[in-house]
Amino acid sequence: MAQVLVIADDLTGSNATGALYARLGLRAVTVGALTQVERYADRVDVLVMNTASRHWSPDRAHAAVRAAAEAAGDAPLIVKRVDTTLRGNPGSELDAVVDVLAAREPAARIRTLAVPAFPDAGRSTVGGLHLVDGVPLTRTAVARDPFDPVRHSRVAAVLGAQSRRSTGELALDVVERGPDAVATALRASQAETVVCDATENAHLRTVAAAAARLAVEDRIRWVALDSGPFGAALAGELGLRPEGGAPARILAVVGSVTDRTRTQLARTETALGARWAELDPAAPDPGAALAELRAAVGEGATVLGVRVAPAPLTTAGSAPDPGAAARILHALAEIARRAVVELCPGGLYASGGDVATAVTSALGADGFAIETEVLPLAIAGHLVGGAHDGLLFATKGGLIGGPDAARDCLEHLRAACTRHTLGPTLSTT
Fold first, then answer.
1. 175-196 pLDDT, tens per residue?
2. Does residue 429 form part of some domain?
């Protein structure tokens, strides 16, 4: 049974949203007919249904979405994917989803989180207003769209023009105070649909974490109305996993201590929940780092790694230790060797050429089979030869890429692990 049902209103949005779930290690398929919904609902983790209803009348769109929700069965999470600029029929299509759930689960507490922000695409919500690159919707080109002009910048007003559900708003300052504050605010709100401010990916995860807590503590059945990334964040926080087991564990080994690298690794913490053990450059201790990695695994982390702590400032005139770099490199390679054996990761990421070489050697591999370029100078494939032949592996230059470069490599590995575990691509038979 699909863990997530996403109902979208156009094909490009459907495919882009499916890709976000695939990056979580979930197998996603986009379909466009009710017969295909029935065919694939029991064969994938995420079923994305494209109703192609963006330019339809509200009543016709409601009927199409309702039919899709009824055909898909009882997925733990239903997401109504909307356009990043709120064109189309978001209110009537949301009502269709909630109508189906209310009929199927009459005793359930059904509420909607409307989080249309897509920070990576320049879409944010502040003070209840939806912005494109910082500009309110009604001052952008979508206000003059020939098919679906958007007449309101306030998300609640867009939904209220079509939806029968009551709407409230959750301000950015509450979101920035963290999951506890968001959970408290959601409990206090009587609105059936809560529009949440968000300007960055960390905000999406904060709201998702609070919602997941209330799903357990207050038995709330959440519906997500979003443009893609919030629904994926909520699926992760709800603990939805690939059919047949937990998501693959990814191990990372990073030697660079530049500000660029630290920024990249900070993004992996907020986007992926990555846990990092720090290696003391003055006295590198593989055993201590491994103990931190074991603890992270015990606490449920699936993306974990070791990085080098910033070196303390040296006093003027003191000579650098010529053997420090070699000791750090040896320690990182030893940690990788022991962690691969003990923690059995599905994929391994190494940042920095010297680190990648040392890790490959420590694992006894003959080399690296190249499969794809994740981004310039970031390559993914698998090890060849030795005891770990076939282990998925990605490498990236230490000074390469923007803030999300490490996140992109780790997400690529996680998705590749899922494909490797689940086997051949789905067929139509």
1. 999 999 999 999 999 999 999 9
2. no
Strand boundaries in 280-409, DSSP class E? 303-308, 347-351, 367-375, 378-384, 392-396
Q: What is the pLDDT of residue 148?
A: 86
3-class DSSP assignment, residue 149 = coil
The per-residue pLDDT for 419 is: 65
Give the count of alpha carbons within 13 A of 343, CB side only.
30
Q: What are the φ/ψ torsions at residue 154 (nearest 5 degrees)?
A: -80, 125
CATH code for the domain of 149: 3.40.50.10840
Q: Is residue 112 situated within a structural domain?
A: yes
Q: How far is CA 152 from CA 47, 162, 354, in A?
A: 31, 12, 54
H-run or E-run covering 354:
helix 353-362
**In whole angstroms, what is the distance from residue 187 CA to residue 353 CA?**
50
| Alpha helices in 89-178, H assignment, sequence order | 90-104, 155-160, 172-175
Q: Which domain holds residue 344?
A: 250-422
In the beta sheet, which residues pair with residue 118? 123
Closest Cα partner for 34 from 18, 44, 49? 49
pTM confidence score: 0.78
User: Token digits for 429?
Assistant: 């038979």
What is the C-alpha to C-alpha distance for residues 302 and 125, in angstroms, rounded to an integer? 30
Contact between residue 368 and residue 383 where contact means Cβ atoms under 8 Å apart: yes
Provide the domain count of the chain: 2
CB burial class (10 A; 0-12, 13-18, 19+) of residue 256?
buried
Report the 10 Å Cβ neighbour count for 242: 20
Q: Which residue has the tokens 């230059």?
A: 397
